[in-house]
Amino acid sequence: MSNHKRNALSLALAVALSPVLAFAQSTTSTTAGGQTGSGATNLDAVQVTGIRRGIENAIAVKQDATSVVEVISAEDIGKLPDVSIAESLARLPGLAAQRVAGRAQVISVRGLSPDFATTLLNGREVVSTGDNRSVEFDQYPSELVNGVTVYKTPDAALVGQGLSGTIDMQTARPLSFPDRVIAVSGRYQKSSLGDAANVDEFGNRISASYIDQFLDKTLGIAIGYAHSDNPIHENQVGLYEPWTTEHTDNGNRPGLAPGVTFSDGIKALRRTGNSKRDAFMATVQFRPNNSWTSTLDAFHTDAEQIDTANQFEVNLSNFNGGYTPGLLITNPQVGADGTFQGGTATGVYPLVRGMYNKREDKIDAFGWNNEFTFGNGVKLVADVNYSKATRDELNLENNLQLTPMPQLDSVGVVVRPNGFSQINPGLDYSNPDALFLTNTIYGSGYGKVPQVEDRLKGGKIALTLPAPEALSSLFADIDVGVNYADRRKQKTQAEGNILLGAQGDANVASDLQYRPVNLGFAGIGYIPAWNVPAAVERYMEFNPVTDLDYLIPKSWTVQEKITTAWLRANINTDIGVVGVRGNIGVQMQHVDQSSQSNYFDRSRPVGQEVLPIDDGKTYKDWLPSLNLAFMFPHQQTLRFAAAKQVARPRVDQMRAGLEFGVDTATGRPGGSGGNPLLDPWRATAFDLSYEKYFAERAYVAAAVFYKDLKSYVYTQSVDDYDFSDLLASYVPPPGMVAPVLPTGTFSSPQNGKGGTLRGLELTASLPLDMFTDALRGFGVQASATFNDSDIEILDPESASSVGSDPIALPGLSDRVYNLTAYFERNGFEARVSQRRRSDFIGEIGNFNGNRTLRYVVGENVTDAQISYTFSDSSAMAGLTLLLQGTNLTNEPYRTYAGTTDRPLEYVEWGRTYMLGVNYRF
After folding, report:
1. Mean pLDDT across the chain, nearest whole number?
2. How far apart are the C-alpha atoms of 304 and 281, rounded to whole Å?
3. Pairing of strands 513-518, 475-500
4. In this structure, which of 164, 402, 619, 861 has its CB flanked by the most CB atoms within 10 Å?
5. In three state form, how does the secondary structure of 337-395 look?
6. Residue whose C-alpha is closest to residue 568's, from 194, 156, 13, 101
7. Residue 541: how many other CB atoms lie within 10 Å
8. Rounded to whole angstroms, what are the CA distances from 339 to 104, 243, 261?
9. In this predicted structure, what is the pLDDT of residue 881?
């Protein structure tokens, strides 16, 4: 970060905080002088509800924490303020969300990609349904989560900690509630994009929670259920990657001059479908006395998403099935930087495609915790846990073209970086009787059946002992413990062509047709929509396999056995009038990682080409950590933290699967694949935070952080890779005269050069009646985060979208802002929230099922909610009515290749409106 940036940020901090601190100082001095005497007591005596209750509960947890944390607390059971956990998390300082299918789904913490954060459920690491570790938060209903704590700094006893942060979701603890609670809620939802194909615009969410205590409040039970059934509606225009001058330079794009940067295709689609989820949680807590508490947790979620993209697609690369005349671009429009902006493409053969996806995810998590408290401050905690996730997916495509072949077209194209690019075909594609399932320029179809299973089991024993007498003035107690985790993640991916049946070319029958979808937003008009899996079943043959040479490496297993031990001394002392709390300790991680897969050796006899591969390593890390909180007068806290941190590599990067071969002309071997020998990301981190509290009603804070990443994992080519193990079974083909060399080039994830990451976080949570009673009920929560990094990485697998030069850290936005303004008074509540982030490099899944990176345009997403809760004296006591709107400005999702005038995707998900009711008995 440059000095100029530092000075600007320092000035902004000073300006932002000075009037607030001056006001706070005068208020506190009055109380200390005895003029009001009981100001703090009066504040605590006020019963707060709704928005303020959630805010004040979160402030209390943050203030009492010994680490740098951010906290979300439910206003009431089943009443987190956002539709999903991810949206709530994205409003916290230093956190940002990436939208997937219109929903906030994955979270970046402090400018690092989701790979660097770990997610816990009730303090235990949980599995994921993706190929990696990062959790998809929309699988955890907000109605079943009672709070979230984000640890930005680690301590020695925090198991499963991430490098950027650790996100701990907590469900309700029934013995923490004074009385029985029964709560139900319902939402009716509408998408602004309206109905299309076979999907209407309406959805629903319902939930119910029951919490009670028995046996003189020694036994507590909490049960929750949440159901959602929401429509999927999406408008999108996409352009092929890469944008390049390669083909215009070679004269292979007739009508375009050399040096024009051009994309070889464009598509427009309307995606429709439904996303359903059923989730359950249950907790049984038993506390027969003050010496023993036993807690049994269970969580289950079952999600299904089915969607179809009905799309019109044009290949602009002179690939039209070999028909004449071929491609010619007329009236080309080219920007000042040489980027193609539009023209008319003749000699093209468009397709109408149906892209179907069905995904079923299941997660089960169980934990049993026993806490024993003995005399003299001795405490023992024993915990066991088990979680399992499965993902079953089905991807199918149908390709239709006008027949009899060829039906070449002239298509006008206008490229719009800040809106939907336009496609204007000359022929009519709205008549389903003129379109046939046939062997198109892209074949008749292709399908995939990915499957993932992730299983994690573990156990922990922790002991708290009083500090020795000689150290009791500095340390309150000492924690020691050990945790063991055994994780196994497995993926298979069967694939295959979808071939025409014996009947040959076929129309999709009327009984399989849906209502046509309107692509007018892209200039096309209506195209047919149909039941893709039913069409495959009736007209086609699909027999996916896993044993083809290019599919063999896509099936793999990764195993990790991690033993974590720690020693932590908890600090509680005074330095004059300054109280000091915190901890100092060390954590040891011993990791045994391995992966099993297969590779295909073409030199082997038929039937013997598939050979196993099994590799791995063990290593140990020692991770010291220090957290200090200095509690100055007037409720001021200064925090300092220092630690060594690690983050495990991506699971899919650790796969053993690879492709391998030998150049018969030179004898030099080569290959690509995963790397089971990866070391983790390692970093040294420092944090400094200043926080000023106003009782538990409000606070302002400023924090700086610095991380020195010792290495970064990215794909590299190793020129002198030793292939001896793979060559042991290699049989040179007949006629090969060159000797087989032992070393060659292997491309795989490697531990490469790291760098530094630093940032500044400014936060304020203020009820405005602190300043004047005229603003009673009004309040704001605001944060601004500024990140900077000198780390640059290479990602050859994403070169078609982000280029082959070094790129910035994935997930890093230089600026992230959050603002919530609210009003709450006499049962009426209103809030408007906005989250904004600057451009970043995001992660998506491509058609091959692999992770790829793209530049994502920064977003500005605005949500709002109004509600009314009837008073306790009303005949409708316990009832809340609400109206909620999300993405009110219809903020698009945009990706681009290098510069914004070279768009890749422009996606619109529309606004969502919800009418709801909550009732608490």
Report:
1. 91
2. 18
3. unpaired
4. 164
5. CCEEEEEEEEEECCEEEEEEEEEEEEEEEEEEEEEEECHHHCEEEEEEEEEEEEEEEEE
6. 156
7. 15
8. 32, 9, 5
9. 96
Averaged over 119-148, what is the pLDDT? 91
**SS3 per residue for 436-455:** EECCECCECCEEEEEEEEEE
The per-residue pLDDT for 270 is: 98
Do 740 and 722 form a contact (C-beta atoms < 8 A)? no
3-state SS assignment for residue 61: helix
Q: How far is CA 663 from each of CA 1, 406, 605, 668, 738, rounded to the nearest angstrom?
A: 47, 40, 18, 5, 9
Say which DSSP state 250 is in.
Answer: T
Compute the distance between CA of residue 893 and CA of residue 240 in angstroms, rounded to an integer. Answer: 17
Sequence-ordered strand ranges (E) for 520-609:
526-530, 540-542, 556-575, 578-600
User: What's the confidence (pLDDT) of residue 8?
Assistant: 36
Looking at residue 141, the DSSP 8-state letter turns out to be B
Q: Is 799 helix (H, G, I), strand (E, B) or coil?
A: helix
Q: Are strands 815-825 and 778-789 parallel, antiparallel or unpaired?
A: antiparallel
Q: Decide if 566 contacts 560 (C-beta within 8 A).
A: no
Q: How many residues does the chain have?
A: 921
State both tokens at 781. Answer: 């929560």
Q: Look at the block and give the residue holding tokens 């008549």.
A: 431
Strands 117-121 and 165-170 come out as parallel
43-69 tens-digit pLDDT: 233 445 578 888 999 999 999 999 999
CB 709 within 8 A of CB 681: yes
Place of tokens 């496609």: 423
Alpha helix stretches (DSSP H) within 540-598: none
pLDDT at 34 over 70: no
Check residue 803 and give its pLDDT.
Answer: 84
Residue with tokens 């292709």: 446
898 dihedral zone (left: phi>0; alpha: psi -120 to 50; beta): left
Q: Is 452 exposed, middle or buried (0-12, 13-18, 19+ CB in 10 A)?
A: buried
Structure-token pair, residue 378:
């001795």
Kind of pairing between the strands at 859-869 and 899-908: unpaired
Do 82 and 145 form a contact (C-beta atoms < 8 A)?
Answer: no
DSSP-derived pairing of the beta strands 743-767 and 669-673: parallel
Q: Which two tokens stand for residue 208?
A: 């119910």
User: What percent of the residues of the chain are helix, what percent strand, and what percent coil, each to the nearest 5?
Assistant: 15, 55, 30
* C-beta of residue 530 within 8 angstroms of C-beta of residue 512: yes
Q: Is the pLDDT of residue 282 over 80?
A: yes
Structure tokens at 815: 């600026």
DSSP state of 264: S
* Cα distance between residue 602 and residue 251, in whole Å: 37
**808 DSSP assignment:** P
The answer to whether residues 59 and 693 touch, using CB atoms and an 8 Å cutoff, is yes
Cα–Cα distance for residue pair 611/371, rounded to 1 Å: 49
224 φ, ψ to 5°? -140, 150
DSSP 484-518: EEEEEEEEEEEEEEEEE-TT-SBPPPGGGEEEEEE
Q: What's 131's DSSP letter?
A: S
User: Radius of gyration (Cα) for the chain, nearest Å?
Assistant: 30
101 contacts: CB under 8 Å, gap ≥ 6: 232, 234, 275, 305, 307, 909
- The reported pLDDT for the residue numbered 79 is 58
Contact (CB, 8 A) for 347 and 269: no
> Which token pair is 811?
């997930």
- Respond yes or no on whether the N-terminal peptide bond of residue 432 is cis (omega within 30° of 0): no
Count CA atoms closer than 13 A to 188's CA, side-chain side: 3
Closest CA to 887 of 234, 102, 291, 295: 102
The CA-atom distances, in angstroms, between 351 and each of 64, 141, 442, 544 are 61, 39, 9, 24
Helix or strand or coil: residue 331? Answer: strand
Phi, psi of 361, deg, nearest 5: -120, 140
Model-level pTM greater than 0.85? yes
The helix (H) or strand (E) run that includes residue 806 is: none
